[in-house]
Design a protein that fits this description.
Order of helices and strands: EEHHEEEHHH
Largest sheet: 3 strands, mixed
Oligomer: single chain
Strand content: 15-25%
Number of helices: 5
Shape: globular
Mean pLDDT: 84
Structural class: alpha+beta
């Protein structure tokens, strides 16, 4: 279920009240997770097969200020023969942060896709500067 709730322009953003965009779309957690799965399934098969030791999770809170997603781990390009016995890398997608900047479910789905691609790129060792050059 998708609902919209007004967000007062004069109110400070809080975890329960994201930044104002006129209307904040509220995508249910299960639907949002489906969007993340669809974004991952939409990756080219060759890339999916190359992803190693990485977990993708959804944080239903707002997350750190200014972030829609976060990659934590050792990029594939930095792994050596000494890379063993480590916890999986983690990609976190922040539901409320994404919902706060979108007005429609289609915008949320598009932003989820863009955020997943951005964080997966970090897993492959592509930095923010190069992603900006590529339009991501």
């Amino acid at each position: 279920m998708i609902s919209r709730r007004p967000c007062r322009a004069d109110a400070e953003p809080t975890p329960s009240r994201p930044a104002d965009n006129g209307w904040v779309i509220d995508v249910e957690p299960e639907r949002f997770e489906e969007m993340v799965v669809a974004a991952l399934d939409g990756l080219p098969e060759d890339l999916g097969r190359l992803m190693r030791n990485v977990a993708v999770t959804v944080e239903h809170g707002p997350g750190p200020r200014g972030l829609l997603g976060l990659y934590q781990g050792v990029p594939l390009t930095s792994r050596t023969t000494q890379y063993a016995g480590v916890l999986p890398d983690r990609i976190t997608i922040y539901r409320l942060a994404i919902c706060a900047i979108c007005r429609t479910e289609d915008e949320v789905a598009d932003q989820v896709r863009r955020t997943v691609i951005h964080e997966v790129a970090h897993h492959f060792g592509i930095g923010d500067a190069r992603l900006r050059e590529l339009g991501w």
